[in-house]
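Sequence, please.
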């Protein structure tokens, strides 16, 4: 089986060309990789320009049909194109996709009352394997249609990356942003057990976006990803960088 890493890029750093260039350069050494990206700041900016309310709950976007249209327009458009261009400039043969393309992702309505938000129920892994074997680097914008089609659901990029990593049985899922890892009492933790995550969130040690990321990390391990780390650019080049999320079984061993 092809050894693949899944990398999720997000955070405010997506707006910084020099950060993207450094990230693209570092990705060259990672090996076969599937990239999943966010772009929430860009979605919020366009929403405000269109006088569409921006509302979040526990780090997740409340998504009306109008917001879902903005998500598709922004993430599958300029944000995806920006990332593909940065990777190609660094020498990676990147190909931009949304979850709609080729039936790559299929979703169902997510619980939680956030509107037109979906959770991934199927990943067409054969398509990703074909692209990777052809030497291409897929760059995925995280929206996905339901089984009946229609307006694609907005899917949290962390959740989409977890679903893709689990389906591919990825060697590693790397959440890359501008934070060096998961901080508890001001100190970045080298590792956390998946079964500690809900306690950390309840205690307020992880909130909003980080809480969503940690829950996605635990989901990825449950779905079949072999390892997960959360951190900044250093996780792409240093095996010990960031915070490693361990399954309870690994911790017990």
């Amino acid at each position: 089986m092809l050894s693949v890493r899944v990398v999720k890029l997000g955070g405010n750093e997506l707006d910084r060309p020099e950060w993207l260039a450094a990230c693209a350069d570092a990705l060259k050494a990672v090996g076969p990789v599937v990239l999943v990206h966010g772009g929430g700041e860009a979605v919020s900016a366009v929403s405000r320009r269109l006088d569409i309310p921006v509302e979040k709950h526990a780090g997740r976007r409340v998504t009306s049909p109008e917001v879902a249209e903005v998500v598709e327009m922004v993430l599958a458009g300029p944000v995806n194109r920006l990332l593909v261009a940065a990777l190609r400039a660094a020498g990676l043969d990147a190909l931009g996709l949304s979850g709609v393309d080729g039936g790559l992702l299929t979703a169902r309505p997510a619980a939680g009352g956030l509107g037109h938000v979906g959770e991934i129920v199927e990943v067409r892994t054969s398509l990703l394997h074909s692209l990777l074997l052809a030497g291409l680097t897929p760059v995925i914008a995280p929206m996905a249609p339901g089984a009946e089609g229609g307006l694609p659901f907005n899917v949290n990029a962390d959740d989409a990356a977890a679903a893709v990593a689990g389906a591919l049985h990825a060697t590693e899922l790397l959440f890359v942003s501008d934070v060096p890892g998961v901080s508890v009492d001001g100190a970045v933790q080298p590792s956390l057990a998946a079964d500690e995550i809900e306690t950390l969130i309840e205690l307020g040690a992880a909130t909003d976006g980080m809480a969503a990321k940690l829950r996605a990390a635990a989901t990825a391990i449950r779905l079949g990803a072999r390892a997960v780390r959360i951190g900044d650019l250093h996780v792409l080049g240093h095996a010990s960088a960031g915070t490693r999320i361990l399954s309870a079984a690994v911790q017990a061993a």
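Helices lie at 17-27, 40-49, 65-89, 125-133, 157-168, 197-202, 208-223, 248-252.
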